[in-house]
Amino acid sequence: MDLKEKLVTSFLAFENDIDMDSPLHDIRSEAIKTFETVGFPSKKEEDWKYTSLKSILKEDYSVFPRQENALEYKDVKKYFLHDIDTYKIVFIDGKYSSHLSQTTHDGIDVCLMSSALNKPKYRLIIENYFNKVATKDSLASLNTAFSNEGAYIHIPKNKMVEKPIQILHFSTGNEAALLLQPRNLIVVDENSHVQIIERHQSLTDNPVLTNSVTEIFGNKRAIVDYYKIQNDNGNASLIDNTFINQKDQSHCSVHTFSFGGKLIRNNLNFYQNGERIDSTMKGITIIGEKQHVDHNTLVHHIEPNCESHQDYKGIYGDSATGVFNGKVVVNKEAQKTNAFQANNNILVSDKASINTKPQLEIFADDVKCSHGCTIGQLDESAMFYMRSRGIPEKEAKALLMFAFSNNVLSSVKIPELKQRITKLIANKLGVNLGFDL
Amino acid sequence: MLLWDLTGAGKSTLASVIAGKEEYEVEKGEIILEGEDIEDLAAEERAHKGIFLSFQYPVEIPGVSVTNFIKTAINANRKAKGLEDMPAKDMLKMIKEKAEMLEIDRKFLSRSLNEGFSRGEKKRNEIFQLAMLEPKLAILDETDSRLDIDALRIVANGVNKLKSKDNAVIVITHYQRLLDYIVPISFMFYTMVKL
User: Which domain holds residue A25?
Assistant: First the structure.
């Protein structure tokens, strides 16, 4: 039985298990039908031309973890941003860990999707927002069909959330192969501000596939800063589907740091439903071996006077492969749009490759849209300059790569996170630079 | 020592070869520093032995500040000598001293290396690195070219202060005016070196 069949047959058991009367019953049933019809995406589809899921779909994944697993904080502390106070929503093999989490209902809701789906007091938010911005493509539908657990964050209006929120997913390796489908809903009301950090971490070499969906709603003048740390083990793969719906004057940013994992696909979609909106998408990808990272972005300018900024840097070594596919759509009504897109790449090895494709569909006539992509090697004259000052080749290379990715790093607003990512980059490059950029 | 010749004679090439640029292969002759043949050493290893090249055209490295660059360089040189990293306090003190000597503004130190620097700033930054790294042999490749008189004075004063009996400076230039400030011990016409 292949994975698709297994999932479709598992669906009935899943629905029986969680309550047929759930308000989500219809949405889930619809979604599994969509998935059953379209199946997993293949390379024949334009959007998946350079990314094949074949190698990761052949594993015999457990769809529902059989047992609850526990972890000790000291064993996984290093994966937390632990030097500052944060809210934490932690999952172990897809199950919520109250032991490792720190949630709240004090003025804001930082808690679990499963409880939000079942408790009447959240019903209105669920009805208004759940599955309202996620697209109905195959992978998002698959997630919707099995959606039951994940992070639920609701920030009512005029709240400045003092502490960042961490969403962490651990997989213990107690299953031979595990499929996880977290579902996050984040609603940020008028004038509110929140910072969120998301990380997926497999603790063994057993195969893990995560197909996650995150819906984010930035209402009027909301500020949402979202950071994704993707630095997983060599057998862990991630398909991240993030959908952001923005209202007037909201500022939403997503930073994606992709340093490890077998295959990572980031589907990041921004919809600007209002005026004077700012959308920012930035990323640093540093991978080697046979790793694959695919950034597929969309920003849809629907109304006038909005901005979008995209800046993705990639450094590819060994036989690593990268994809950047950035689509910008500007509706006829969206005059005075400012849309910028940049994708710069460095290939450090002859076997590494990157496919980069900007796609601009502009229907308005008074807009500023720019895009640029570069693929190059490290600057030899800069290398000689640094080495002539006594900096060894490896450090010189690292310093150049740091410099290359610096403008993405410099827009990270949480200093401790910036420091942590700087260290991750240094580790990844195998150097100790002794300073933070 | 002063190296003086026409454009195209190969002065800068010679300087790059001594500093270890890999594009060149030495067919004849040896490069000996304090009795040791350094021909097979990589550029950074030559730097660790005390060779410093002040570039005619310093490379711009956006994203790396002057301070971070010099810290990395100094600690790399110390590591090569088996020393611990220089304590941050000492490093700051040294940076402050040398910057003052070369009349370098503090703001300048936090700017990206050579990015958007004026010609004078680039050259001064080279001499700043020279002052920080304290090499045994410094090669100044047209450090005086196209500098205004004030910048030239500052650069020359910097070099004069750094000269000691334990180090040597090779100056490559087209102009006599630098000699009003730096007094070489010996002249050498490059064409003679080639013979």
Answer: 3-273
Q: Rounded to a whole number, what is the distance in Å from the CA of A392 to chain B's nearest CA? A: 6
Q: Is residue A325 part of a domain?
A: no
Residue A19: pLDDT band (50, 70, 90) is low
- Decide if A399 and B20 are in contact by the 8 Å CB cutoff: no
Nearest-angstrom CA–CA distance, A288 and A262: 10
- Residues from chain B that touch A407, judged by Cβ atoms under 8 A, are 63
Closest CA to A125 of A136, A137, A109, A107: A109
Which ipTM value was assigned to this complex? 0.91
Residue B174 has pLDDT above 70, yes or no: yes
Residue of A nearest to B49 (CA): A390
Q: How close B10 comes to chain A (CA, Å)?
A: 18
Task: Judge: B43–A437 Cβ closer than 8 Å, yes or no.
Answer: no
Whether residue A308 lies inside any domain: the answer is: no
Determine contact, residues A361/A394, Cβ cutoff 8 Å.
no
What would the pLDDT profile of B94-136 be if each residue is shown by its tens digit? 999 999 988 888 888 989 899 999 888 898 899 999 999 999 9
Q: Are strands B112-113 and B61-65 parallel, antiparallel or unpaired?
A: antiparallel
Residue A244 belongs to a domain: yes
d(CA B81, CA A384): 21
Q: Has residue A391 been placed in a domain?
A: yes
Q: Give the torsion sign (CA, B23, B29, B32, B37).
A: positive
Task: Considering only the beta carbons, identify the residue of A379, A382, A395 that sits closest to B72.
Answer: A395
Question: How much is the pLDDT for A66?
Answer: 72
Report whether B43 contacts A388 (CB < 8 A).
Answer: yes
Q: Are residues A250 and A387 in the same domain?
A: no
Pick from B19, B52, B61: which is nearest to A382 by CB? B61
Query: What are chain B's domains?
Result: 2-60+118-194 (3.40.50.300)
Cβ-contact A213, A241 below 8 angstroms: yes
- Say if CB A365 and CB A356 are below 8 A apart: no
Which residues does A273 contact at the CB level (< 8 Å), separation at least 6?
A245, A246, A247, A302, A303
Q: Are strands A87-92 and A95-96 parallel, antiparallel or unpaired?
A: antiparallel
